[in-house]
Design a protein that fits this description.
The chain has twelve helices and six strands. The protein has 296 residues and is α+β, with helices and mostly antiparallel strands. Strands 2-1-3-4 form a four-stranded antiparallel sheet, with helices on one face. Helix 4 crosses helix 9.
C-alpha cells in the first residue's frame, strides 16, 4: 500500500518525517518476527559432545576452556537460552552468582564461607529466576548430580563458583564470567555465544560424522534443544519437558527431532502390530452374511 502511494507521488504513510519506517510499524514487524517460527531448526546435540568439550577443557586446564565448557554443560542440563548462560545482547540476563544455591542433602551451603571441600561434595544445585525469559520471578529450579565426574550440572556449577570465589567476585557477577591471570594483571572476561559455538563445533568435528550432523549445523542454541531431546529419549513426559524448559506453547516440539534414531527405532515394529484392526461399520457398509447358527 505504501508503495502504491509512492508511485503516484504521494508521501509514503509508512515513513516518518526523517524518511525512516515509523517506530510503531518497526515494533509491530519485530513482534511478528518473534512470533513466526524460524525457517530452520538447530540440531540437538547428544551428551557425547558435552563430554568431549569437558574432556578437552580438563586436558588444557585453562580458565577460559573450563568456563566455556562448564557453561555449555549447565545450559544442556538446565535447558537454558544463550542469553541466560552467556554474555549476549538479549531480552533476558544471565544467571548471577547470587542466583545459585548448593546443597549437601537438605543442608544449604553458604557459598561465601563454606570450604572448598564442602562445595565439592554438594549433591544438588538450584538456579533462581529473576528476569529470565518465560521464567516466573523467584521460581527456583534445581538438579542433582548426574553420576558423571565431568558432565554434571552440580559439578559444573561448583567449578564456576570456586573460580569466581577465588577471584573475590561480587554476588552480582554473571556465573559465565572468568578471570585470566597474566604476569602483570588479572583480566575479567565473559563467555559469549560465539565461544560456546566454537567449542561445540570443535567437538562435533573431532567426534566425526557418526553423530549424523556437521559442525555447521551446531550453534549455542543447540544446547537447549539437546537437553530437551535427551529428556524425550529418556521417556520423560513432554508436558514435564515443557515445564522444565519454560515453554509456554507447543513451540517446544520444534526442538525435538524425529531424526534421533532411538525415537523411531521400533516404530515400524509397533505399527506392524498395531496396524491389524477393523473399523465399526457405518450404515452404508453392506452387512456381512453370517452363516446360520445351528444349535447342537
Amino acid at each position: 500500500m505504501g508503495q502504491g502511494f509512492a508511485r503516484v507521488g504521494a508521501p509514503d504513510p509508512r515513513l516518518n518525517d526523517a524518511g525512516h519506517l515509523d517506530f510503531r510499524l518497526t515494533r509491530q514487524l519485530r513482534g511478528y518476527s518473534r512470533a513466526d517460527p524460524p525457517p530452520t531448526r538447530v540440531k540437538p546435540i547428544p551428551i557425547s559432545v558435552i563430554i568431549h568439550a569437558l574432556t578437552v577443557a580438563a586436558a588444557s586446564d585453562t580458565a577460559d576452556s573450563w568456563a566455556v565448557a562448564d557453561m555449555a554443560c549447565t545450559a544442556f542440563f538446565f535447558l537454558l537460552r544463550p542469553g541466560e548462560y552467556t554474555s549476549a545482547p538479549s531480552d533476558t540476563r544471565p544467571f548471577y552468582l547470587e542466583d545459585i544455591q548448593l546443597f549437601i542433602g537438605r543442608a544449604r551451603l553458604n557459598l561465601a564461607t563454606a570450604s572448598d571441600g564442602d562445595l565439592q561434595t554438594a549433591t544438588f544445585t538450584t538456579y533462581t529466576f529473576t528476569t529470565q525469559k518465560n521464567g516466573v520471578r523467584g521460581e527456583v529450579i534445581g538438579l542433582g548430580r548426574s553420576g558423571s565426574p565431568l558432565a554434571c550440572p552440580v559439578l559444573a556449577t561448583v567449578r564456576r563458583i570456586l573460580h569466581l570465589r577465588a577471584h573475590h567476585a561480587p554476588p552480582d557477577t554473571p556465573l559465565s564470567t572468568y578471570y585470566r591471570a597474566t604476569p602483570n594483571r588479572t583480566s575479567k572476561h565473559p563467555v559469549t555465544p560465539a565461544d560456546v559455538t566454537a567449542i561445540l563445533r570443535a567437538s562435533v568435528s573431532a567426534l566425526g560424522p557418526s553423530l549424523g550432523f556437521l559442525p555447521k549445523d551446531i550453534t549455542s542454541k543447540s544446547l537447549r534443544a539437546g537437553g530437551a531431546m535427551s529428556l524425550l529419549l529418556a521417556r520423560v513426559d513432554p508436558d514435564l519437558i515443557r515445564l522444565i524448559g519454560r515453554w509456554r506453547s507447543d513451540e517446544m516440539l520444534r526442538y525435538l527431532h524425529l531424526q534421533a534414531q532411538p525415537v523411531m527405532q521400533n516404530f515400524a515394529r509397533r505399527m506392524l502390530q498395531g496396524g491389524v484392526y477393523t473399523l465399526l461399520p457405518g450404515q452404508d457398509v453392506p452387512p456381512i452374511d453370517v452363516p446360520p447358527h445351528n444349535p447342537v
